[in-house]
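pls ignore typos typing on phone
arginine + seq
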Amino acid sequence: MHKFLKPTATFLLILGLLALPGCAKKTPVSALDAVKKSGKLILGTSADFPPYEFHTQVNGADTVVGFDVAIAKEVAKDLGVSLEIKDMKFDGLLAALDSGNIDLVIAGMTPTEERKKSTDFSSIYYRAEQTVLIRAADAAKYTTVESLKKAVIGAQKGAIQVGIAKKQIKGMADANAGSPEVKELGKVADLVLELKNRKIDGLVVETEVAKAYASANPDLAVAPFVFPDSEGGSAVAVKKGSQALLDAVNATIARLEETGAIAGFVTEAKAAMDQL
Ligand code: ARG
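k done
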């Protein structure tokens, strides 16, 4: 009996010790717990997208505002934490999310099937259509999608607008193939400058964004056609597998939708734009 028990006990002890570090790893802190523990929610956005998110002066200080920011503030409020905003290039947002640099992305981001492979998305909080921002002087020239076929088109790097420019305007089969007639830049504001300086002739953006830039720049205009957004508008992105955080975000969105608060945030954001 003794002979048998001893090695078994030793074996079990070793097994237990071996299992210890493994056990510790199996109970990771959820993204939600981490946010609550740190007391702050870090929002990643690309603040070149009025009225979704943009820079403005608030009491003399440069501030990122917009209806996406208003939604993020509500999420933070519901979690009982403060909000920190990181403004970055749109095409760097999902990598920042993945590496844990930011806790969520609210940037007018479309939950495409491709993105869903590596990121989790909330329910849709805003629906959108795409159009083309052009120079006011070209308004009579660019009245149809077809009329832009030979024009130089700009689109934000990493955004679905690149695919629209290449496939729907240029008739290319592959949205990942390069084209001398499609210019991709990291920030929409830089593309707007390119348009004003005649480096590009049209810029594919969400209709609301096109209207915002056109109203702030009398030399720009919105083309009279839209590309319906087949993939359904904007959603909040969280790191894949952050279910508890995602549930909290969805609960906030549901609350805001019920009270009509999101529509109110859109109106407020547009008013803040007028003060630019
Ligand atoms: N809806 C488009 C996309 O998801 C463009 C979003 C761009 N957002 C921004 N804040 N610049 O690809």
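The longest strand covers residues 119-126. The CA atoms of residues 165 and 185 lie 13 Å apart. more later
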